[in-house]
Amino acid sequence: MVQYTENQKSIAEKIDTDTVISNWKNWKWQLKHSIQDIDTFEHLLDIKFPPEERKELEKTLAKFPLSVTPYYLSLIEAEDYKNDPIFLQAFPSPSELILNKCEMNDPLSEDEDSPVPGITHRYPDRVLFHISNTCSMYCRHCTRKRKVGDRDSIPQKDEIVEGLKYIHSHPEVRDVLLSGGDPLMLSDDYLDWILTELDQIPHVEVVRIGTRMPVVLPYRITDNLVNMLKKHHPIWLNTHFNHPREITTSSKQALRRLADAGIPLGNQTVLLAGINDCHRIIKSLIHKLVHNRVRPYYLYQCDMSEGLAHFRTPVGKGIEIMENLIGHTSGFSIPTYVIDAPGGGGKIPVMPNYMVSWSTNKVILRNYEGVITSYKEPDSYEAIFCDRNCDDCKLQLKLDDAQEYKAIGISKLLSDHDELVSLVPEDTDRMERRNGE
Ligand SMILES: *Cc1c(COP(=O)(O)O)cnc(C)c1O
């Protein structure tokens, strides 16, 4: 039985004097009573912003709207709200209006890599499918801030049908990431329909759901939802915890339900200045995650989206955090630290260097303690020349359905079967001279 905190009782009573506390766990009640203005925010938390600050806040809200579930609000500790990690993720800051030159509306060029509305097809074998542009909570650090609260960009059913058609006609797509917005804002029936459609596409091997519901509205993870999801296995789910304080009795229960339904759980954390840019906080977070059967998946460098400058840290902070994790704690609890390349290059992993030096037959490595060690490579190794003719190869791939992809990028340079020796940017002066421009 979940006990309610003092905060939760006090907020529930203020929202609605007739409210019986049992409504608190009804996700629709939570959505209906989402906090979207400063007055209510002040009233529920018993805080008061200074008048000059309020003016700035109103300006921020006009550009980037506010919406917080009563549940997520109840996690704020009002005494020191200014440094509270929940408050900072939920409540606007006038800094959001500061626009730096390098910042972009769509830093990841998701719209450019979009063959049909709602689909971002960036990688060879997987697509991002935006099936909802609304969320139960508007994260202040949202990379898709450009779309938050924009009603026009809520996809219509015919748009979803177009997306499904695209996936249908692209047999290389074996992994579909349902994203948004938050896909779990859709009703169980509607989601059931989308998942059923995806089930019928033979080349789709796995569906992933990206949702922040276990963090900001754990009551959305109902038995009904979970029973529906498990009809569509294999379903994987990634959620978005940023701070150990977000792991509560209610969120643990949501995670337990999902894990018990056989849904492998992952977590994506964004490195946020003033919120979690500390290796002890990240370590505590990942330990709590694995304790609740969630595998830390990515730690993201904060994107260069408009209005996020105050959340960004140097990359060195992320490397320092990784240095404090690798070797120090269980390997399976360590996320991959990635920078999502501006301009649409995708996620690029970065980590401390472990390779110290290399000769023709030895590699020199260092470990997390500073031990320097050497690994001797074999004296002889019979490399197998790869001409991509797997049927005649002595290595037995022997999978009828093994798909062949053309080599791209660095793997093309590495390959034996392709003559390409260098990748050269097209627009250098040298190349332009060659082309007689
Ligand atoms: C993150 C992302 C994916 C999935 O990447 P994984 O590394 O497979 O998790 C796919 N498409 C786009 C556009 C993405 O941003």
From TrEMBL:
The protein's required cofactors: [4Fe-4S] cluster; pyridoxal 5'-phosphate
Chain residues that bind [4Fe-4S] cluster: C135, C139, C142
GO molecular function terms noted in the UniProt entry: 4 iron, 4 sulfur cluster binding; L-lysine 2,3-aminomutase activity; metal ion binding
Domain called Radical SAM core: residue spans: 121-333
InterPro entries recorded: Aldolase_TIM (IPR013785), LAM_C_dom (IPR025895), Lys_aminomutase/Glu_NH3_mut (IPR003739), Lysine_aminomutase (IPR022459), rSAM (IPR007197), rSAM_sf (IPR058240)
Modified residues (N6-(pyridoxal phosphate)lysine): K347
Enzymatic reactions: L-lysine = (3S)-3,6-diaminohexanoate
Gene3D superfamilies tied to this protein: 6.10.140.1170, 6.20.120.40, Aldolase class I
Pfam hit, one: Radical_SAM
EC numbers for this chain: 5.4.3.2
Alphabetical keyword list: 4Fe-4S, Iron, Iron-sulfur, Isomerase, Metal-binding, Pyridoxal phosphate, S-adenosyl-L-methionine
PANTHER family: L-LYSINE 2,3-AMINOMUTASE (PTHR30538:SF1), LYSINE 2,3-AMINOMUTASE-RELATED (PTHR30538)
Family statement drawn from the similarity comment of this UniProt entry: Belongs to the radical SAM superfamily. KamA family.
Function, in words: Catalyzes the interconversion of L-alpha-lysine and L-beta-lysine. Is involved in the biosynthesis pathway of N6-acetyl-beta-lysine, a compatible solute produced by methanogenic archaea that helps cells to cope with salt stress.
NCBIfam families: KamA family radical SAM protein (TIGR00238), lys_2_3_AblA (TIGR03820)
Name under which the protein is recorded: L-lysine 2,3-aminomutase
Organism: Methanosalsum zhilinae (strain DSM 4017 / NBRC 107636 / OCM 62 / WeN5)
Classification of source organism: Archaea, Methanobacteriati, Methanobacteriota, Stenosarchaea group, Methanomicrobia
